[in-house]
Design brief:
313 residues, alpha/beta, 2 domains, 3-stranded mixed beta sheet, globular
């Protein structure tokens, strides 16, 4: 890790034992309340003190969340610790800190707005740790796409089309189908191949990590999804897709073999169009238009993203 990070640790009573930890459930958060997730995990862990919950508060600006999370942690019967950074360090750095501080031989990364899909969610991973022969496993996720709020309809359509894939479909794609949430990974792998902290802001650090890790370790997919409640309104998607172009350019520069990805191909095609920058307001307007057919709205969003990516590849 390039820059030292200062953080404090709060541990609950159940974590004060000498039992060997097999699995650390690592949950980074920033201004998201992880309370529902850890309360859902607590009965799945039960009396198994070889599974711990490890949280990392990346200096949330909503400071009440830290105190609230501390109270939640103290009430758990499962071993649990809360690391609190004194300054915001970002997604990659935070996940690396969790890997360094984890006591388990394996780490399960979950986002704070996720939830176990069923009662065998954790036992499925514990079995995979023993029998899969893999070093990292992505279980996939399901996004709640049935939303009454029309502001989230575009993101719901994107998630239904591309994110909610089963293991067979993801296996065909390979490492680039990995995400940094609902990711089970050997701790020794994480120490060998940490997340690249030059990826700042939103996007693509997980693909970079998976591609790098796959060159020295065995990665695979299973069907053990977590429920993801991360749908966002159109304006947030437009901002993220614009900002994420920088990280996408960094990804392609590090891994030139990924230039064949659909996003890279689309960006190169858009970049060949005269005056493509002047078309951005049209594409953004199409994405915002909740009266337009959803296929046209998603096309507008993808063209918007490709136009910014064209600047960096």
């Amino acid at each position: 890790m390039s820059n030292p990070v200062s953080y404090t640790e709060l541990a609950n009573a159940a974590s004060q034992n000498d039992q060997t930890v097999r699995l650390s459930i690592a949950i980074p958060f920033y201004n998201d309340d992880p309370g529902d997730l850890v309360r859902a995990l607590n009965p799945l862990i039960g009396a198994d003190k070889s599974v711990e919950i490890l949280l990392f508060d990346d200096a949330s600006s909503q400071t009440h969340l830290n105190a609230l999370t501390g109270r939640t942690l103290r009430a758990l019967t499962a071993p649990a610790r809360l690391l609190t950074a004194t300054e915001n360090v970002g997604r990659s750095h935070g996940r690396n800190i969790l890997a360094q501080e984890a006591r388990g031989e394996w780490i399960l990364y979950l986002d704070a707005d996720m939830a176990p899909i069923d009662d065998v969610f954790l036992s499925t991973y514990l079995e995979a740790m023993q029998s899969s022969g893999l070093d990292a496993i992505f279980g996939g996720y399901l996004t709640q796409t049935q939303q009454a709020d029309r502001r989230l309809a575009l993101h719901a359509a994107l998630a239904s089309a591309s994110d909610n894939c089963d293991a067979a479909a993801r296996e065909k794609i390979g490492a680039t189908a990995f995400c940094s949430s609902n990711l089970l990974v050997r701790r020794e792998l994480m120490l060998d191949v940490p997340f690249d902290t030059s990826f700042v802001g939103w996007g693509w650090e997980d693909i970079d990590w998976a591609v790098a890790a796959s060159r020295r370790h065995k990665l695979g997919h299973i069907d053990n999804p977590a429920l993801h409640d991360g749908l966002q309104p159109v304006e947030t998607l437009l901002d993220k897709f614009r900002a994420g172009a920088t990280n996408y350019g960094r990804l392609i520069a590090k891994h030139p073999d990924l230039r064949g990805l659909p996003g890279a191909k689309a960006a190169r095609a858009i970049g060949c169009l005269p005056f493509y920058r002047t078309l951005r307001p049209l594409w953004a307007g199409l994405a915002r238009n909740d009266r337009a057919p959803m296929r046209l709205r998603t096309l507008g969003l993808k063209l918007w993203r490709a136009s910014w990516t064209a600047e960096v590849i």
